Each structure stands twice: as structure tokens, then as C-alpha cells.
Structures
1.
Amino acid sequence: MAEESSRTGVWLVGARGSVATTAVAGAAALRAGLARTTGCVTEQPGFPDAGLPRPGDLVFGGHDIACTPLPKRAEQLVAAGVLPHGLPALVHDDLVTADAEIRPAPLTGRGAAQAEVAETMAADIASFRERHRLARVVVVNVSSTEPVAVPHPAHASARALQTALAAGQEVLPASSLYAYAALRAGCAHVDFTPSTGMRLPALAELAAAEGLPYAGSDGKTGETLLKATLAPMFAARGLEVQAWSGTNLLGGGDGETLADPAAMASKSASKQRVLAETMGRPVDGEVHIDYVPALGDWKTAWDHIVFDGFLGVRMNLQFTWAGCDSALAAPLVLDLARLAARAHQCGRRGPLSELAFFFKDPVGAQEHGLMQQYADLRDFAAGLGEAR
Amino acid sequence: MAEESSRTGVWLVGARGSVATTAVAGAAALRAGLARTTGCVTEQPGFPDAGLPRPGDLVFGGHDIACTPLPKRAEQLVAAGVLPHGLPALVHDDLVTADAEIRPAPLTGRGAAQAEVAETMAADIASFRERHRLARVVVVNVSSTEPVAVPHPAHASARALQTALAAGQEVLPASSLYAYAALRAGCAHVDFTPSTGMRLPALAELAAAEGLPYAGSDGKTGETLLKATLAPMFAARGLEVQAWSGTNLLGGGDGETLADPAAMASKSASKQRVLAETMGRPVDGEVHIDYVPALGDWKTAWDHIVFDGFLGVRMNLQFTWAGCDSALAAPLVLDLARLAARAHQCGRRGPLSELAFFFKDPVGAQEHGLMQQYADLRDFAAGLGEAR
Amino acid sequence: MAEESSRTGVWLVGARGSVATTAVAGAAALRAGLARTTGCVTEQPGFPDAGLPRPGDLVFGGHDIACTPLPKRAEQLVAAGVLPHGLPALVHDDLVTADAEIRPAPLTGRGAAQAEVAETMAADIASFRERHRLARVVVVNVSSTEPVAVPHPAHASARALQTALAAGQEVLPASSLYAYAALRAGCAHVDFTPSTGMRLPALAELAAAEGLPYAGSDGKTGETLLKATLAPMFAARGLEVQAWSGTNLLGGGDGETLADPAAMASKSASKQRVLAETMGRPVDGEVHIDYVPALGDWKTAWDHIVFDGFLGVRMNLQFTWAGCDSALAAPLVLDLARLAARAHQCGRRGPLSELAFFFKDPVGAQEHGLMQQYADLRDFAAGLGEAR
Amino acid sequence: MAEESSRTGVWLVGARGSVATTAVAGAAALRAGLARTTGCVTEQPGFPDAGLPRPGDLVFGGHDIACTPLPKRAEQLVAAGVLPHGLPALVHDDLVTADAEIRPAPLTGRGAAQAEVAETMAADIASFRERHRLARVVVVNVSSTEPVAVPHPAHASARALQTALAAGQEVLPASSLYAYAALRAGCAHVDFTPSTGMRLPALAELAAAEGLPYAGSDGKTGETLLKATLAPMFAARGLEVQAWSGTNLLGGGDGETLADPAAMASKSASKQRVLAETMGRPVDGEVHIDYVPALGDWKTAWDHIVFDGFLGVRMNLQFTWAGCDSALAAPLVLDLARLAARAHQCGRRGPLSELAFFFKDPVGAQEHGLMQQYADLRDFAAGLGEAR
């Protein structure tokens, strides 16, 4: 089994972004023994027997509209305090190798119909898999958040979608077109962003039909990670949360994207869902996402929670989380690629609800308490270990 | 069964303190339908079938060296923002009834040997049980934190202890003398403070011999509750905590007691233990406890956590918890009395490690992650429900 | 002089609101020796010789559309933690007396033209002044924030305004109609809100012509008070503020009003102005105002400031201000009424720029540094003391 | 005048420490036009006409017991995030030049009497001044904080001190021995630390006799800077501070030194003095200084302030200051050297109380409000500009 699984591809949508660059550089650092596994969930106790491909056995490629080569992106991330000094030089060959596997993102609406674009995407992925003789490839979306998608009747079923695409219609948002291309190429799919991606009935139906697993969406790396950790404590203690307000200050590319109210709407909704589902009722409070360029690749979240204790005494909890977005996200991308690849190998199909631990808005899962999600994840890993 | 369990006594050591007064007034409010069960763990889903005595069926008595009557103490707690306006008047009869069952705390070192004092204490408790025809009584220590106890050879075994007491020696700290008296009176015992209480080999041996259960120690109502909630998140995510520093500002009686460095030593130690045991290694950082009279019955904890993510990027989390100590502690006192009474009824003896969810320094338990402790507690409650 | 100034009226627009009720109850408490002068600027050293009317010599009346009597409003404020227990009973007569001087706010747009409405308002004020034989009356706007006013050509000059009013046109926002009425009644005017009030060229011209002083606008009681305190420190140290972000959580009536984006626009603008003017350049960062009903009469502001030090090292400061809005505002209302009355007595006319210390958006002033504003205020008070 | 003042020496006690290295590298960067003047007080408006030597005209030397060369120390500070990448290479020659002027700190108690040691120190300084043909030298203490000094009768007067030294006695703490050596060498002296330094009657007397100015002590770069900024706001508003508690988390060398309770005692005292003097009464609250190695050269201060508003309503303010100690201190060292040099040139002698703006515990000054201190500093600078 080890031989078979030893060659796993990771196809990154947004392959020149900060998260992707950190993931590629980090995997190379792990392979070379230059870094510890800090921040890697599946390198902690409980996962060694799950049969996952090793981080060092991952092969990277992807799509991007940006052109800056990965070695240069890595140097930019050193200046931003995301990557350690000297690392880009030490893993230069790996960066160059991955960079050579990044294809320009095919654009729709310039003469090419979405059906054709998807075939080009799928062909790029398949060619990558064949060229490197990979057992399988996981497609991971780490591109910028897109605006909330416009509903369309073609989203309702595989048949409706295929009819529309065959007619040359543009019916899918970009993230879903990538998800569709992943299915066309026979790949598992992970959505690390809040974009629509695989979350359309038509695509869910196709994934089931193709026997392919997928996971998502919206990696949990800050405020929502804390919400998922703290909300169960309030529930277990019977303390009634009256309001949970949050402000997120983000620099970097994601902050700029999310300053667009349309994208923010998508993000904010998934951020508050965890509370309502843990508490069993809607909770007052707004979530703001502000773009603060001076923060660079860092983000700061402030949350203020008003809660009632015994006999209605009103108290509060505040927290401030100051984190480096790419350093929080990149190891989870490696975790998810490894878990999705192994699930694909084990024949899992459809939504991987057991990966809810990683996501703000977990597909197919109702559980939002972090430690229960973690128990579910470990059970899942144990099951993967027993497979074959 | 309901008839038998319907009369349960709660004997409060420190019965005129803020926590005790809030517990008595709160139980009365619950009985009268004047308050909701906010903050009561065993009133949340998962506990109704555990066969616990109802909060309204608890009968209160206790020891204290203070003389202020409970109705007056309750008015003071209204002024301090702990109890709602008007509540003392509405539950006046219950306060008066409980007040009539508070006995002056017998003091050692004034002629009476500890053995005699313990018999007086036990007789007070037994008389209370008989007078009210109670099925059983749980002794709960909610008095001020005492200094770290001086070790003594008589602590090592039941035999050594009984020999020393028979010889008129003063070998037990006050909290342990109360625990001993509880055993003499045939009662379960709960230690809500960090004082020594039942945590001496001699007393553990006696409890086992007498077939009595006990639980402790040091109720988890603020900073440590958050530590037990957050530390497992860091561990699950593979994020390395480099330092966890904390400052606790306390008004009220407990703040004043803990300003005594000897008492603080006891408290600080149990506050840091949770981290070392969750992380599997000691964690840098100091814990301060400051007495700030202007805070009244309130406390504010600030914690600052430095942690490393992927590739060693250093990040931080800060939180501020502003809570009302008595309102946080009192419902847990009711929970613990109900659980310990039911455990006693079910024949449990020795340390109730399944109650770790409630304590900073859980006797007999290694698990410090809050949600695992909560799962253990629910399993325990389910087991109690199946008994008989 | 003391005799003449001993009878000063304060006419509150929004006289049944939390701020007004707290001001009336507080002045009565000061008169009766039941309270200390905490929070009263003009009772601190530096003001005793300014010839101000004493707080206890103020006589209150006002307009409001609400009908709840002041004694009942005061009880509500006790429950909210704004007024001390027992105070409403102790100052009951004063509350009743003031309540008797509150007139229903005349509404425009129901048949009556604005000119008529203003005359009714002015007549109410004049009648109050005569009935109590007051030396003078200061009109203070403490009503809810109104939406940003629609510009109108009639705002441009006294002549244009009077022509429009004479023609039966509705050209003034409510706050400006009250300001106009104050001028018609020969009163000084203070705007404690961010509403338009006196800030129209037509009204400024009329105030000058009538020889009446006015002050405003938008009392500085939280986030902006801190901005005005901290921004000069950054400037003096040469530390470059790169971003200043703020979130304000407000319960109570003002929070609800400000949840209306139109009102918030008005408030946010005045909150950021202090930074731009102190730093000499615009500063990045958004200001949010959220309505959080669970906070009651309290507000919490969180500000996050990113700044650069020597050689471009990026650092940050965060603060959280948790204050009771009415308790912060009410003593300033008394201060401003006393100062404006004395300025009126001394013959000052037009904008009282020396009162910038009190306001987010000080009329006629460029200085936004708090301690410079305080020096200006003390100089102003010294000047008032020397007058006559 | 410009010619004469153009060659000013800065003799750093602790010349290989982080603050000293940052000051030397920063002055070189300013001279070369590689950096802006961020964080430099005397480069802001109001100081250009004070006749100060330019930062680029300062010549550096000093004493240290450490041996790591400045270019290597600068690289360490790059890794710590204090100096920008690439800067050490760009200012390499300046670092080497300054490094060549660092002498091993002469130690007392190894055979040499303190009198001899002081002469060696003074000779090192004088030799530096002559070798570079400097108009004058300012000695600045930026070494580690020393424990609170043991009082000795020889501290009481110049005569007593000189008698004791002549007798071969060891009576001065190290910081005061350096201050004495500065006087012997005819130099102005600045104490940037809380150590005793010039603050002995004997040394004050000598400084006056020699006609030399001095300034100190304990540079204000974090918590105390905020205290000096915020406390006057509370006072001006009449808000009563009931408790002001603080916790300082420090990495780096100073944190380690201050973990020594003896040194901490010295530091904590100067940190609370500002409150008592601004408020006119002692203020409750403790100050903690914790050594947290994971913070490196950074520090985080959390302060919690409880205050009362109108009618006794209790409110609070919290702040967290996250700063880089060396980047905050180094530009002030340059400011102080320039100001002290100019004061020396202008014939000022004794304590420079007008420099209180820079210090936690300003010698010769009672004023602790930051903006008043800033006004005093600007007046002082204006006076220096008018001299000769």
C-alpha cells in the first residue's frame, strides 16, 4: 500500500497565493527535515496509523492567474514574517519544481464556453497526474473568496447542469467550475474558502456518481476556531450567551477581497452559523471584517461575549487572536490533502463530514463543537487505518 | 426512589459566605419558580434521568464563624450586583430557615482537642440530618482558602491519624478536620476550595473504609475554566504553547485571603497544573492573584498565550474574563451536592474522579480537557440513572 | 453677582431620556449632599472662581415626546445600574418638580408649519423662565441622534431661512428647529448630540445677531475621549499611526438609534475627525457602531491601533473602554449648562470654541488634543472669573 | 556654533546591548538617509531651531562586559525583528567604527579600588573625546537594571564620598560609579535605567560643583508612557481611579534581569509613582513584571483601571501595549544625548527637570502628566535655541 500511496498530487487553485506558497515551502521543509510539524493536525498523536501519504511525498501543481514565480513569492513571505529567513534558499529546488507545474488559470467569458474551460482545467490536472505517475490528485481551492453566487436553475441537478454547459451557457461561479473540473479529472476536492465550490446539488450528484469524495468549506483558522472551542463550554455550563460580537482586522489579499461587501456576506454568514448551531438558537451580535493593509499577512480578531450566569447576573468574556493567516492555513491544507487522498484511496465518496474539525461551514455535518469534531476526526482516521 | 431521595441535606462549611448565601437563595428561587436554571450544569440536557435530588428538595445548614444572618447577607449581595433586586424578600422564609441551621464553627486550640472538635462538628451534622429526617447529607466546603498545610506524619494513614487525635494532638488543618467530621457523620464530602480537605492519605483510607464518596477540589469558575477549554484546542491543532501568563484581579473575601502569599501558592499551583497535563510538558508563565477591593464580588482574569504555528511563526491569544464569582460558583455547589448525594445513594465510595469537569485540581483524575471531562460527567450521570 | 446667577434654567430637549434623567437626579443629589462631584469637570480644581451657577441652583425643564414620568424613569435607571439604589426616593420631590416642567415636544408636519412650531417651543421656554424668575435658560439637546440632514438652500443665510419659514416650508431638521427656537427665546444652546442643531450658516448668523453663545457638538464620553487623549501621545513621540480601528457596542436607546446606518454615518464621521486633525493626515481604519441590547445602558469600545516605531518596527496598542453612557454624559451636561450660562451672562456670543474639551466635533475649534483642550478650558474659566 | 557642536560623542554604558546597538545602527541609518525619523522626538516639529547636534553627527563609544561585536549583535536584532533586513550590511562600517570604541567595563572588587576604577573609566571617556576631537561627550546608561542599592553614609555628601573612595572603600553601586566617572571626565550624564546612577546627594553636589547637567531616570517606553498619558484624562474629567493594576511581560535581557525581585522592586516603584503624583493620592493596584523568554525583544503590558463616574457608577478601562523595547528606547537615547549635549553647551548644570517627558521617574520634576511634560520640553528646546 505504501508504494501505491507514495505519489500523491496536490493541485492548488490559487497556487501562487500566500497559503499555497507556504504549503509548498513547508512541505519541502518537512521533507528536508528543516522544520518541525507544528500546526499539522495529522502529525499529532492519533494519526500515524491512518495510512496517510507523508507530507514529503506530496507533489504540487495548480492554477493561478498571477505570474510571480514561487521562489519570489517565498521571499516576499519572508519579508512579511511568514516564512523563516533562509528557508526559500534551502528549498529553492522544490519551489522551482512546483512552479513549473502551475498553469495559467483559464478564464471564462472570453470566447471559450465554460464546458471547454472545464475540459482545459481537467486536462491540465490529468496531464500533471500522468507526467508524475501519481496515484491520485486532490484539488484544493485556496484562491480568493468570491462573491456570493447568483442562483441558477442549472445548479439543481447534474442533468440540468450538463444541458446548460452543453448549450454554451455560463452558469457556474469560478470556484464551482474548478470543482466540476476536479470531478471531470477524477479527483477528490477540498474547498478551503467560503466560495460555492462543490456546494451545488448538481455537483454533489456528480461527485456521488463518480465515486469521488470532497470536503469543505472555509478553513477555520481564527475567530471561528475560537467560537467552536468556547461555545460548547458555555453550553455545557448552562451559561446563556446573550450576544457575541466580533471584529476581524485583516491585511493581505484576503482582507482586500473581503472588504468587498459581497464577499464579506459569504464569510460572515459562515462565521455566525457555529454559534446558532451550538447554542440551539440564534445569538445576537454582528461580525465585521475590515481590511487593514498595515497588518500585512496578519490578522487580529476581537470578540466580545455577553453571557448570563446564575440568577441572571450578566458577565462578559473578550478575546483577541493575533495570528498569521498563511501559517495557520498552510498546514491544514497539507492535512486535508492527505486525508482526502487517503479517503479517495479507501473508496469514500460524497461529502467527508468527518473533516468538520477543519471548517467553518462543514459540508454534511451538524456538529460545531471543536472537541467533538476532533473526536470524530480521530475516529475517521482510525477507520482509514483499518481500511485494507 | 423519589421519596427516599427527596430529602437531601447540604451542610455548608462557610455557610454565611457569598457563595453559600447565593446557593441558598438561588435554590429557593428555583423552588419558587422565580429563577431560571442558568449556570446549573445538571439542569442542562443529559441529566434529567440521573435520579438526582431536585434543587428545590435540598435542605441547607452549615458551620460558620461569622454571625451576619443570611437575610442580611443576601441584601449585601443585592447591593453588590450578585442577587437580583427583590429576591431576598421573596425568599425570606427560606433564608431564615437555613440561617436557623447554621452552627458556630467550633474552634480548635482553645482547650478542646481536635478529636473533640470533630465530634462536635459531626454531631451538629447528624442532628441536622435527624431533625429534618434527611436521607443523607453532603458536606460542602465553601469557606476561605487556607494556607498550604504543614505535612505531618499522622497524615500518612488512618491508624496514624487516629492515634494522634486520640493523643490530643492538633495535626489537621481546619479543612481536613471538617472532612474528617463529614466521614464521622457518614456524609459524602465536596471540597470547592483549594484547601487540603480530604486530600490526605489518612482521610482517603477512612473514606474508603466507611464507604463514602468525595469530590474536589477547587471549583473551576474563571481562568482555569478557560484554560481547560482552550488548551485542548492548541493540542489538537498541533500549535505549541510557549508561554501562558495570567493575572487575576479579585475583590471580595477570596481576593483578600489570596493576597496572603501562602494561600496564593496553593491556588496558583492548581491553576497551572491543567496546562502541564494537557500539553504533556511544563509551560512557561506565571499566575498572579491580586486583591483589588474596588472589584467587590467580581473578578477579572487576563491571560496572554504565546504560541507557535507552522514553521515556527509566533502568534498570541489574549482573553479577559469578567465574572461574578459567587454567581459562577453557587450553581456548581448545587450541582455537586446533587451529584455527590446521588453517588452516595448508589453506593459509590472514594474519589469521584468523574466530577473533574467542576474542578481545577480534580481528585483521582488525569484528564484536564474540559469537553472530555464533560463527556465523562455525562457518562457518570447516565450510570447513576441506571443504578437501581 | 451671585444673586443674579443663582437662578439658571436648563431646558433639556429629550428631557425624559436616560442622560436627562441622570442629570436631573444627579443635580438634586449634589444639592442635597447625597453625592460627590465625581465626573463633574467644573467641580475640579481650577473652576471655583469662574462665577458659574452652582449645580444645586439649576432649575430643569424640557421637551420630550415620551410620557414616562421622571420618578419612574429614575427607577428604571436604578435597575439598569446607572443610579444608586434608594436615590430616586431621596430626590423624589426634585424629580416631580422637574417632571412638571416637561412639555410634549411639538411635532412638525401635522398641519402646523415649522415657524409656528418654533414659536410654540420658544414660548414654552420663555414661560418656564418667567414662571421661575430665572436669570437665563440654557437649552441642551440630549435627544436621540437624528439622521444626517438633507441640505437645503434655506440653510445658507438667516434671510433665506426666515423667508422659507415664513412661506410655511419645512426646511429644518428637528435638532435645528430646537436650536432656532432657543435663539427665538433668547437662550444659549448646547448640542450634546451629533445632530445638525446650530451648525447651519443661517443659525450661526442669527446667533451672532442675537448676541447668543452656543456650544457643541457630540459629547465625548468614550472612544473619542480616548482618541483625543492618546493621539497626541503618538504625535509627540513621533510614532506613526498606520491604522486605528474601532468597534463600539452600545445597548440602550442610543445604540438602537445608531444601528440606523444614516445616524451612524453622522456619528462615525465625528469619531474619526479627531485622528486626522491630530495626526495632520487621514488615518486608515473603520469605526463600527453595533446595537447590543444585552448591554443595557452600558457601552464597550474596543480600539486597535497599529503604529510604527524607530526603523519601521510595527507595534500595536489595544484598549477596551467599558462605561455607563448616562453616567459619563450627565455630569458633562451640568458642566456645559453652567459654562454656557456664565458665558451668556458675560456677553459671549457665537460658538464657544473653548469648550472643545467636551465634544467630539467641537464647533469653531481646530484643536483635538485633550490636554490642550483642557488648558484652553481652564483659560476660558479664568476669563469668565475675571469678567465683571 | 554649528561647527563647534558638530562633533558630539555618546558614551554608552552597556554599549553592546540591544538598545545601544539599535541606537548606533539607527543613527547610521539616519545619516545615510536609509531611515525616516519615526520615533525620534526631537525630529518632530518644534525642535529644529534648538541648536541640537544632528543625529548623524553623533560619534559612539562605550563600556560593556560583553564581547559580541556590534555587527553580529545587529544581525541578532534583525532575526529578532528589531532591525530591518539588510540594514546591518548597509551600515557595517559605522558598526565597526563604533565597536572599535567599546572598552571592556572595568570591574570593581578584583584588587582595584573603586577610585581607581572610576579613573580608568574617566580616562577611557577622555581618550575617546580627544581621539575624535569631540566638543563634548554625553554618558548614557543603557545597561541592565541593577538591584536597589544599599544605603551608605558616604552617599550623603561629596566630601564623605571622596573620603571613602580615597580610603579604598567600595561604596557606590556600579551605575553610580559610572555617573561619578562621567563627572570626573567632565561629561553630561543621562540615566535611561531605574538604577541609582546620579541620584545620590554626593553626586548631585559634585555635578553642581563641576557645572555639569544630568538627566534621568528610567526611560518611559510602555506602560508608564500610557499611565502618564491616561492619568491626566481621568483627573481632568473628575473620574476617580479606584485601582490601576498592571502586568508586564518582557522577554529579552531586561526581562531576565527584572525577574530578580530586587531589580523589580526598583522598577515597580517608579512605575506607580506617576499615578500617585497625578491623582494626588495613592492608588490601589499592583504592578507585575514577568520574564517570558518567548517574547524575545518584545514586551506586552496589560493594564486594568477601575474608576468611578457620576453618582459612583463603577466602570473600567483596559489596554494592551505590544511593543518592541529596543525600537522604543533607541530613538529616545539619541534624543536625550542631543538635548543633554546642547544643555551642556549652553551652560546648564544640575538636574534637567525639563526632560521629564522621557522618564518614569524624572529627576527634579514633580509633573507627571505627559502633555504638560511635552509642553515643558518644547519650552526647554525653545530656550536652548535662544541661547547664544
Note: Chain D touches chain C through 56 residues (CB under 8 Å).
2.
Amino acid sequence: MTTPLRLGIAGLGTVGVGIVRIVQKHAALLELRAGRAVEIVAVSARSKTKDRGVDLSGYAWEDDPVTLAKRADIDVFIEVMGGHEGPAKDAAEAAIANGKDVVSANKALLAIHGQALAEAAEAAGHLIRFEAAVAGGIPVVKALTEGLAGNEITRVMGVMNGSCNYILTRMEDAGLSYEAVFDEANALGYLEADPELDVGGIDAAHKLALLASIAFGTQVDFDAVELEGIGSVTIDDIHQAADMGYKIKLLGVAQMTGRGLEQRMSPCLVPDTSPLGQLAGGTNMIVLEGDAVSQIVLRGPGAGEGPTASAIMGDVMDIARGLRISTFGQPAKTLRKARAARAAVSAPYYLRMQLIDKPGALAKVAHALGEAGISIDRMRQYDHTDTTAPVLIVTHKTTRTALDEALADFKSTGVVTGDPVAIRIEAV
Amino acid sequence: MTTPLRLGIAGLGTVGVGIVRIVQKHAALLELRAGRAVEIVAVSARSKTKDRGVDLSGYAWEDDPVTLAKRADIDVFIEVMGGHEGPAKDAAEAAIANGKDVVSANKALLAIHGQALAEAAEAAGHLIRFEAAVAGGIPVVKALTEGLAGNEITRVMGVMNGSCNYILTRMEDAGLSYEAVFDEANALGYLEADPELDVGGIDAAHKLALLASIAFGTQVDFDAVELEGIGSVTIDDIHQAADMGYKIKLLGVAQMTGRGLEQRMSPCLVPDTSPLGQLAGGTNMIVLEGDAVSQIVLRGPGAGEGPTASAIMGDVMDIARGLRISTFGQPAKTLRKARAARAAVSAPYYLRMQLIDKPGALAKVAHALGEAGISIDRMRQYDHTDTTAPVLIVTHKTTRTALDEALADFKSTGVVTGDPVAIRIEAV
């Protein structure tokens, strides 16, 4: 193991450049820690001439990432291009077919094609590592796959999209509407080119699906994530939640139930004194629960040049040190296809709706909840307008199925105007 | 790698039994994850006949842990006896001499003899792993050594002794004196047989010294830790700190300075809105800072059967999976002897003292601070008694050396009665 580990980097955006910076700055430190040198041999990106602020003159250049992936003189193919089809996928497949280990920051690629890629890599005796794809600089894949390897994992949850947490925090701090903060965040460049990836919860759901696979030994199943973005959260909801001692977070939760694997990414109320409740701004937080360890909480930057490059280099250093571990913590071909359990785990819910202001309106709503088997913990009516009154209800524990039944019934009462808002209260 | 990994466990207290439980309960899961079976072959403890609530009949018994360590049929020697001299040390040395990998939860042993043990193990091509020795169930050694391997670490800090954090939290919540809560905690069995290991900060300092070694590539140097326990923290200090937006924590801090390695374990004021400030009760929290990742925070149970056994099994699973990594993240013989820098990093301080109630007293104290080059941020005099007045001062940034000079000068002013309290305000 005294030969250098030779890297090829496909993608020279923020993260790719961050990797180059670390390898150049810390060459001696990396060699000391790994017991062998870590060298960049070749790079690939769209524009060869763009000034990226780092010296690339010592590396071979490839216009095509697939050609880079096939080079005989690289051991590890680092994929930091992004996109779950096209060049990123082609290049990762080419790298595996050509006997390379792959390190990727590409959550979409892995959440959608991870099973096939891992099977191919493992059949060839090679690794795929993806620490950077989940929660940026937080070594959560490592914590879950290695640190907690003696545990049966019982639940994984967290705030996995910093932009959404920024928006929700900023709404509360400044008393602004969702729309106002969305525009502000977009103008500041905090959101993806397609903002729905962030605010729709898709990006976070990719990460949750990857963590669920590792946690429960199941094939990654992004399509089974119950997905709800933050677009329907109003500043009123945030204030009402605060009044009751809660914060609203876009929370991902994965847990194995008697009915199958439940994966949810949706706005939730969490106690404002909990670590998740206290998480402000663009930071990520993952909560891991296992039968031996009980609960650990990991907090850190979910994105950015340095943190993401740090995660990539953690994977690279593992490979340099000779760690050979299955992509999802156990051989890909032993991962079970999990039955998707929707709405298996019950919880209390926060409900907000507009009632037509006439006698008996509240009773009709209460009746609809009762018919669905849902009991009411507390109820509040406030801020009368001329014709409607906002009503807030906190239910006792119920299933989402029963709740959806009640919400459907609300419409037929003729006293609820518009769509009621229902936000789960998660026990963290 | 399809042969089973064979374990010998020395010590069948809480943690040893926790390991047995995991190996028995999760045999299939461990084999699936590691790609090979993980088996207990032999155990050792003081009493063979004691009922520990687990079935040990399938394992060979050794009265002497050294004999266990030498057995030809074990691959990994798990040391969960405790004590930094005597049987634990002898057995660890015997295991290394007999070609075993060692997994230990013994912070004292490693903080004092870790360098010698690691050199011996590495010379023989074997591993020592000690995740369980630092912060219980939190995989912080792994995060630092592996996850952040691409970073130059700039600072490591944290709350590393749950008992101390419990005492400080309980004092504030119940408005009780240190002595009252100490007695309560002792009666509840929360403290070590020698409570000074907890409240004197020794146990936490062992952990800090181990983390500092990994973080900065230096030989573990427990003796260089500036050590101050929580015994002088009063409920008044806690209330005053709270008034100013701070919590008092027994905080360990290690950082490399221009003058050498500074390691401190002492009560500190931290902002009550920071993750460290929000940490209540017996939980541990470690903050890791690196040049690429910026900051990650890990929180979890610092002790207990399940969490400690979880950490031990994380190490065991790494070995089962074939990870070969140096004890301190780089070869032990390459670890530098760090120069111990005391008081290199300046900070603001909180000072509390009793002044004799006569004209000019406050001016004399202010003069002594000025003479030492220390400027005052704020000052408060409160709660007059007949003859003395408690005075609280927050300084601007100063070195501990300058502060100690001022504190010594206070005595010669003739207006300060008793010993002034000085608590550092740490920027977290």
C-alpha cells in the first residue's frame, strides 16, 4: 500500500475545486494519515479554459468524463458533476466497468440508480462511496454504516435541506411570508436552479432514501418517500406553532414498521427545546436511533465547497487506507426490497382551517374528526374576519389515513373554506 | 475474509455484558454487515459464578485476563475492565505481544500509556481502537480520524463528562447548591467510586487528551491538560451567567497555537443559544472544527451499557470488515511531541469576588486589572451584606497569565475577601 492513490475528478464546480484545494494544500498530511500519497492524475469539466482559481496544469485534461473514468492511470473516479442521467451516470458506469472505485456527491444519481450501480461495483470487487451526497460535511453515512454497525437502527430522521431550514427560520425571525422569503433566498442564490428540488423536498428525500437503505438493509426506494414541500407553510402556522412550544421543520423520517418501511419528508412540528427545534438557518441535522446507542445527533454544514469536499476526501482517505465496505453497509445483492408503508406510524397533528362564521360550524368539524376516530387535544378560534374565523386544532395521535378521511369530510360540512392545513407533530 | 472474527472479552461489568448481548442478539445482522461471522470465544472477569443475566455457557472462561489475551483462538482482545495500571495494562500488552488487535473502552489506560501501546501494536502490525473511551456512544474518534481525514483540525471541544453536566444543569433547574446536587448525584450512583475523577475533570481530561492526539498528530499528553473541576462553581455564578445569556459547562478545549498545543478542561461560560449551551443533563457533545468542514457537532449518550457497547462493536465491526488504521490516525511513531502551550489563547473572563464595603474598594480592583493590561467590559455590584459586597466583572479578552497576575494583585489591595472566582468565556 505504498503506491500513491490516483484520483480522477469529473466536475470542477465548487466541490471539484474544493477537492483540488485540499489535495494540494494537505498533500503531506494526507500521506501521513493514509500511509500513501493521494494524487490527482486527471480532471474533466465543461470548460478547459475557465479560471477556477486553482492550478490544474499538473493534471491531464479530459473533455469527456467517460474517457476520464476509463483512464488506466486512475484508481478512484470522483463524480461531482451532478445530474442523475446522462454524463454523470454514464461516467460512473464506465468507471465501475473499468475497475475503478467511485466516490460521488450525487444524491439524485444514487437515490435513483444506486442499487444497480452498487451491484455492478460489488460484482467487480469495487466500491461506491457517497458521504458527500447526504448532509454535506457531516460524516453521517460513516456514523450509520460503521460507527453504529452493532445496532439495529430503529429510526433515522433529520433536517437535510439547509435552504428549506433557512427559509423557515427566516420567516419566523423576520415575520415574513413564505413567498417573500422564497424570493429573497432565490435572489441570494440559495436555491437550486429548479427551486422545487429544494422547497418541494425532493433533494432532501433523495438523502433520506439513501440513509434509509443503509439503516434498514433495504434497496434504496426514492419513489416510496411520502413527499410534501414547505410551500404551504404560512407565517401564521409558524407563529401558532411557536405559541404552543414548537418549531416547523422540513423533517425527513425513516422507520421500519410492522407494515413495512415508512419514509416521509414533510413539514413537521418539533418541540422548540429539542436539538431539531433549536436548529436555525442553513445547517443540517441528522438524528440516528439504534437499539444499543439510543440516540445520537449530528449537526453541521449541509453544503458548500469546503464541507462537501471534506466529505469526498473522507471517502477517498478510507479507500487510501484500504477500507473495503459495501456501498450500503451490506452487500447490495442482500438488500431487501422493502414494502413501502405509508402512514403506518400515528402522530398528533396540527390543523388550521378557515370556518364560515355561523352557529354550529365548529361542531360540524369536531363531528367529522370524531367520525374518523380522531380525538381533539386542544382547539383555538382566533382573529375573526367578517365572514370566516381561523380555527386551530391539535389532535391526539392519529394515522394519516384517518386524518385524510376527516379532511375529505370537512369539505362536505359546507363550513370549511379553502384547504385545511395539516402538519404532523413528530416525537423527537 | 470468510472466517469468523473471534473475540475475547476481559471484563463483564455493564459494558462487557452489553457487548455479549449485542453479539448474541444481532449475530445474523453483524455477519451480513461484516461479510463474516463475529463470535465470542472466551471471557474473563473477577467472579465466574455471578449471575449477569446473559448466557455465557458457550464461551471459554479465563480467571486471568492476561491468559485470555494470550489465547491462540481469539483475534480481538476487548478490554472493558478499567484501570490504567495492573491487569488492564498487563492484558492489553499481552494481547499485543500475542498478535491480537485490541479494542478498549479504557480512557485512563490510553491517555497515559496510549503512545507506548500504539507503538508496540503498530510495530507488530496490529490495531488498537478506542471509540468507546471517548464520549460513549458518539462515534467521534471515527468522525475525527476518518470522516474529517481531509481536514487540518483547528479546534476540538466539548462536554465530555455527563455527570458534571448533569450536576450543573440540575443546580440551575432546581436552584440548588453544588454540594447539595453533588450529594444527590452520588447517592443516585451517577458518580465514579472516586468522584474526583468526574467533578475534578480528570475523566473528561483523559478523553480530551485522546482527541487532541488524533486531531493534531501529537503524542497523547494528559499531563499537559490545564485542569480545573466544577467544585468552585456556585449557584450564584450559574444565575449571574444566565442573566448575561450564558450557561456554565465543564468544557474541554484543545487547539494548536503558535506557541504549542493548548489543552484545557475547565468550567466555561458558553452562549445559552449555542448547541453546547443548550446541552442539558447527562448527555455529551463534541464540537469538531476543521479548515474544510468548518464545524460539526456530535451529541449523544456518554456512558451506559448500550451506548458504550455500541461503540465497542463499531470498532469490532471495522476490524471484521478489514479496516487497518493507525491507533491515533497516523502511525504512532510519526506523532510529534507537542510543546504544551498554557494560556496561549486569550478570552474574556467572568470574575466574581467579595469586596469589603468601603470607599475606593472597587477602584482598587479596577486598578489591579488595569495594571495587568486587562480592560473591563462590564461590572455589577449587588446584594449588599453588612460588611462585604459581591462584585461581578466581565473583562475584555485577556490571557490567563495576565488574569492570574491581576488575581494575585487583588490580595494585596486589602479589599478583596476570600478567593475570587474566574471563569473563562469560550467563543463557541
Note: The CA atoms of residues 93 and 117 of chain B lie 7 Å apart.
